[in-house]
Design a protein that fits this description.
This protein has 292 residues and is mainly beta. 15% of the residues lie in helices and 40% in strands.
């Protein structure tokens, strides 16, 4: 009996010791403070040289701009996709704006469609950025492989909601500008069901997300026109919880339209035809200034 009592006592002692040790471990646990984050606002200022872009209706012959060759023209519509935004800092700071494609529009993140018919679309607010100092930004013009899905895509990637989408091989129109030109070679086309192309207009569409091997004897039509833009800030920006710094980026459409002969180049609707324009995009986007 005494041996049994000693055994029970020993068991109780061990249990109390273990519980005390567990409680001690719980008390000694370090509570990790949530990482401080902040925001930044990107403003894309759409311009033609040193002038703001003023939108005119298709068919409007009130030409506001004249190029170096004396061609008169105006702008009726423009759009471009910004995606894959990355912020970097001098001390190794790095923030990747998360990309997500979903049929549910509310779940689509990281893709932004700046379009002249959508007021405010040129203002992008990035949230959840790890606090720190940032002095550089990179972003993609267009929609890369991750965003070109065979299934349904919602939000700004949904053609039913105004997305500029060609087809699976060509993908999205990453950059486009349309308008009217005094010497445009475009003739009137009636597609039926209310769709038409007016005489004297032009449309430059830059798209294409992959190179597709052409059939024997044919020229390549599907090429990769995705472009990456990298800009250094003119001064470092601090990201903190109570700050809202801004980066102002000029988008100069004059760089795309410069050198075009509207009498012959008035309808660019294929990736290979858009390649010369895609190569100009690196000069289209330029940092204007940043401020806290």
């Amino acid at each position: 009996m005494k041996s049994l009592n000693k055994l029970i006592f020993a068991s109780l002692f061990c249990s109390i010791f273990i519980l005390s040790a567990c409680n001690k471990d719980d008390d000694d646990q370090v509570v990790t403070e949530p990482e401080e984050t902040g925001t930044i606002t990107l403003l894309f200022d759409n311009r033609l040289g040193d002038q703001n872009i003023s939108i005119k209706d298709f068919g409007d012959t009130d030409y506001q701009y004249t190029d170096e060759d004396g061609q008169e023209y105006n702008v009726s519509l423009f759009a471009y996709y910004i995606s894959e935004i990355i912020l970097e800092g001098p001390n190794g700071e790095k923030h990747l704006d998360p990309l997500n494609v979903s049929a549910n529009a509310d779940e689509v993140t990281g893709y932004y469609h700046v379009i002249s018919t959508t007021p405010g679309s040129n203002v992008i607010n990035l949230k959840g950025i790890t606090a720190g100092t940032y002095d550089k930004i990179r972003f993609t013009i267009g929609v890369n492989e991750a965003g070109v899905q065979e299934g349904a895509a919602g939000g700004v990637l949904d053609p039913a909601e105004g997305a500029w989408f060609w087809n699976w091989n060509a993908g999205y129109i990453g950059f486009g500008v349309e308008g009217n030109a005094s010497n445009s070679g475009q003739e009137y086309i009636d597609y039926g069901n209310g769709f038409e192309t007016l005489e004297g207009t032009f449309a430059i569409h830059v798209g294409g997300w992959k190179d597709v091997e052409p059939a024997p004897g044919e020229d390549p039509k599907f090429v990769n026109n995705i472009q990456t833009i990298e800009l250094d800030f003119d001064s470092s920006l601090k990201i903190e919880e109570d700050l809202n710094p801004e980066a102002h980026i000029n988008v100069n459409f004059d760089e795309i339209l410069k050198g075009i002969d509207f009498s012959t180049t008035y309808g660019v609707h294929r990736p290979d035809l858009g390649k010369p324009f895609a190569e100009k995009l690196v000069n289209v986007f330029e940092l204007d200034h940043v401020h806290q």
